[in-house]
């Protein structure tokens, strides 16, 4: 039986995407997405919490992301999580949790005005992707009543 490991991110690019090519000439584009959520702290005050994600896109989508996306642009990313091991600069080993993109949408309208569209890269973001996350409920105790 096959499982499911899917992630959806809505956030902003931390820098311009970097495009490279595999040994067989396949385009690969990597970029970082900052996703900020707001939650109530123990003292009752609301605070922003930003998580950073490394995202990799392949093929035509990689080409288009590299051409059209820029630092600060708001994006929607849908993909799967993958555990990646790497060698740290100090000679040790490290582990990171990366996102391999299945779909990337530009959500920043001012950046899309000149886009013509094409390929696997949809510049007309669906309404579900553009919705802002709702703030956490005022009373977190209500969450304890959920059956899961």
Question: Could you give a short description of this structure?
Answer:
The protein has three helices and six strands. It is mainly beta and 148 residues long. The chain is globular.
Describe the protein's topology.
Elements: E1 7-13, E2 18-21, E3 27-40, E4 46-58, H1 59-68, E5 74-87, E6 93-106, H2 109-112, H3 127-130
In terms of DSSP E residues, the strand content is 35-45%
Q: Give the number of domains.
A: 1
Main sheet strand line-up: 1-3-4-6-5
Number-wise, the strands total 6
Major β-sheet profile:
5 strands, mixed, barrel
Uncertain parts: 111-143
Structural class computed from helices and strand pairing: mainly beta
Helices and strands, in order, run as: EEEEHEEHH
Q: Give the fraction of residues assigned to helices.
A: 10-25%
The CATH architecture assignment turns out to be: Beta Barrel
Report the span from N to C terminus: 24 Å
Number of helices: 3
> What is CATH's topology name?
OB fold (Dihydrolipoamide Acetyltransferase, E2P)
* The first-level CATH class name: Mainly Beta
- CATH superfamily assignment? Nucleic acid-binding proteins
General form: globular
